[in-house]
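FORM 7B: Structural annotation worksheet

SECTION A. Query
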Amino acid sequence: MDFILHDKETIAEMLTSIGVNSLEELFQDIPVDLLLKKLNLPHGLSEPDLLRRFEELSHKNKIYSSSFLGAGCYYHYIPSLVDFVISLSGFYTAYTPYQAEASQGYLQAIYEYQTAITRLTQMDVANASVYDGSTALAEAAIMATVATQKKKIILLEGIHPEYVEVVKIYCWGQDIHFEIVMEDTLISKLDESVAAVLFQSPNFFGDIENVTELVQIIRDKAPKCLVVQVMTDPTCLGVLKPPGKSDIDIFVAEGQSFGISPSFGGPGLGIFTSKQNYLRKMPGRLIGKTNEIDGEREGFILTLQTREQHIRREKATSNICTNQALCALASLIYLVSLGKSGLREIAFQNFQKSHYVKQKLETIPGYQILNKKPTYNEFLVKCPNINELIEQCKQENLLPPLIISKYFPNMKNIALVCVTESNSREDIEKFIHAAQKASKKNMGGN
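SECTION B. Predicted structure
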C-alpha cells in the first residue's frame, strides 16, 4: 500500500482549511486519559529500507504449494481478467454506491451481477449481495420469519458450524426460537408454527442432499413453511441441479469461490436470492434498469434498499447496509470469463479429482471414507492418526485438511479433505504419499 507522509506545512494548511489551530484542538473531544502521549516506535526508514523490512516480515508467512483445506474457504483458479477489471480506479474506489445514481458504471456492474446469479441459480431475483455466506443465511432466517409472521426455524444438521453460530446470534436478538435436528427426525418436528427449514447442500461434511426429495417432505408436512438452502462453494452449480429447479424459496451462498482469493480468510461475498413473491422482504439492495421519462436513454437505479442511513430503523427489514460491490464485481467477471462450459469444467474437475483421492485413500491401511451420500469436492475420512497426517502434509509443503474435531469434539481422528481443480496431479500424489507415510508410522514403520 502506498503511503506518503504529511509534512508540517501540509498539516498546518489542512488545519487552517478546517478552522482548527492545532492537532490538540482537533482531538479535544477525546478524553485525555485515552490520548497516547508517545508511541514507542523505531526511527524512520528510507523507502528502500522499508520495503526490504516488509519483505523480511513477509517471509514469516508460510506459503504452501497446494491446499487440501476447504470448510468454507476455497482455493480455485482465478482468471487474470478478474484482477485487471476490479483494479480499474472507477471500480476499486467506488466500492459501495451511497449516491447511487451518480455511479452508473457501478450500478450497471451490480445489475449484471444480479442477472448472472439469477441465471446460474435459476431463482427469480438476486440482490446486490450481503457481507458473506453466514450473514446471508442469518438474514434469510429473519426474512422467513418476517414473510410468514412466525417465530420458529429449524436448522438441519450439516450446516457449517460457524454459520449456525451467526444464525443463533440473529435469532437471540429477535427472540426467534430455533432448533437443530437430524434428517431422520425432521418430519416429527414440522408443524404450522415453523417459519422455515434451513439446510446446506453440499453440507459441511461434503454430502450432497437429495434437495428435491427434501423439499417435497417439507411441503407435504408444512405447506406454508419456507425452504432455505445454503452453499459454501457454489462452483458445484456447474454440475448440480440449480436451487430454482427444486422449488427452493430462498437460496444463499458464500461467493468467495467465484474469483475471490482466500487471502487470510476474507473478504467474502454473501449471495442472496429468492422467489419473486418475497422480493420486498429481501435484505441489502436491488439494482434495477429503467428509461428516462422524457427520453430513450437507459439508466440504472437503486430500486430497493431495506436498510440505509436515510431509512428509519423501525421501517427497515434488515440491518445490512453495505453490499460487497467490489467482491460482487469480481464474481461477475469470474462467471463471465468462464462461461457455462468453463464453470462446468471447473465443477467436473472438482468432482473427479476429489473422488480419485477418495478411492486412493481407501486403499491405504487405516483410512476409511465416512460419507454415505454422494460428495462434491469435500469428504470425511477416518484416519489412523490425524496428527501424523497433518505433520506429513506439512513436510510435503501441503496445507493440511481440517481436523473436524475442532467443531465436533466427539469426531476423533477424522479429517475433512477438500480437493479442487487447483490441485495438480503432482499435488494429489504428494497428499496420497503423505497419507501412506502417516499410516506406516502409525503402525510402527519408517
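SECTION C. Observations
Residues 66-75+339-442 form a domain with the Aspartate Aminotransferase, domain 1 fold (CATH 3.90.1150.10). The mean pLDDT is 92.

SECTION D. Sign-off
Analyst initials: ____
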